[in-house]
Amino acid sequence: MASTTAAAAALGRIASTPNLQAVSSSSTSSPVARLAIGSRSWSASSSPRLRSVASSPLLEVKSRFVFGSASNLLASEHDLASAVAAQVTGANHGRGCRGVVSMAKKSVGDLKESDLKGKRVFVRADLNVPLDENQNITDDTRIRAAVPTIKYLIGNGAKVILASHLGRPKGVTPKYSLKPLVPRLTELLGVNVLKTDDCIGEEVEKAVASLPDGGVLLLENLRFHKEEEKNDPEFAKKLASVADLYVNDAFGTAHRAHASTEGVTKYLKPAVAGFLMQKELDYLVGAVSVPKRPFAAIVGGSKVSSSLVEDDKIELASTLMKKAKEKGVSLLLPTDVVIADKFAADANSKVVPASDIPDGWMGLDIGADSIKTFSEALDTTKTVIWNGPMGVFEFDKFSLGTTSIAKKLAELSGKGVTTIIGGGDSVAAVEKAGLAEKMSHISTGGGASLELLEGKTLPGVLALDDAVPVTV
């Protein structure tokens, strides 16, 4: 999930937008929750790590949606689209997609059989899937999302060298090996996927040398080498040494300048975007920069690394709320929350007013009144992006708020509303509810999505080859 700082920055830019009407959600897992209304009036839990939880805003845009500086509002939709495209691509030109300015990067689809047959293609995918204690994949969304690009390459006779990270290992860590992914990849691709025990070195060189046209080789976890995250030039050069060209299909890591996402592009040409990367940018840049209005952004999610009431963020929260008021933004915060006496599936629970959580209890979901208010507000929207659940949906007892919003978005999708699920726990939530297929787009990159909305450039995208601009 995105950091508190990133969520704050994104909220700050949204709050800077004039003529903005807002709705909100409450969640124990919401970074903006902690920022937006981490009020002292909420009673704290006795736990030093889990105290009362605030809510996150769901913003319904009636007018312009601004990604730029709070002090530099854009004058028109054309300026806005150009600015967002520039943040992604580093240029003010773009290629048409869904009728709007989109990324101006070369795509794997631009490469034909004559460009690919017999060529060794280094494919950076995001196969960072969750595994249970028995090393079984519990959610293969990211693997399935990578399949179209890989199939296109092998279908055109390329030799695919597939690379990814998994988890956050400190050196070689067996539980973070990519070995459990091989059977599922083999099944989905219809070819026998081979695997090496490292991502660089003699073993990799020999495996690539014997790889047939249309073959797939999975390298071991890139992050087993600390040089990956440091974007070490020598490590990047070693990764690139076994390939002829590069495809980045890992949108989830596009906001990181790592050896496999940015460094290798200095040694491999062409360097192009995969189909998933292209689709992510088409939706997130296209649908959000010039959305069908009204537009809504639901921002939630949390990392429980400290108290969920951050006293040092109260001033920031007050500033953002004041700015929203000045710009005509109405923040509809939760009126009621489901609270628990402990962070557990079997906790005792009850519903209380959002401003009246007693000591020793914590908010783990939004209440029925809040669900009704938010659902009614969403009824007027035409575009919705959701990043972060309403509560601890992993516990059935506290999943109603998240499930209700997921059902509402699925319903709206059926009515032609563009619904974008922005990665992380939001994806897990709609998958659990069995509603993923009903959404317009399921994003694989939570942090990358928010950084893009925040207005930051994405190193993994900037490093790719520019496409020939096409008039929209």
TrEMBL record:
InterPro entries: Phosphoglycerate_kinase, Phosphoglycerate_kinase_CS, Phosphoglycerate_kinase_N, Phosphoglycerate_kinase_sf
Pathway linked to the protein: Carbohydrate biosynthesis; Calvin cycle; Carbohydrate degradation; glycolysis; pyruvate from D-glyceraldehyde 3-phosphate: step 2/5
Keywords: ATP-binding, Cytoplasm, Glycolysis, Kinase, Magnesium, Nucleotide-binding, Transferase
Keyword Transferase: yes
SUPFAM superfamilies, A to Z: Phosphoglycerate kinase (SSF53748)
Keyword Transmembrane helix: no
GO process annotations (BP): gluconeogenesis; glycolytic process
Enzyme superclass (EC): transferase
Transmembrane regions listed in the UniProt entry: none
Family of the protein in this entry: Belongs to the phosphoglycerate kinase family.
Subunit structure: Monomer.
Entry protein name: Phosphoglycerate kinase
Species in which this protein is naturally found: Picea sitchensis
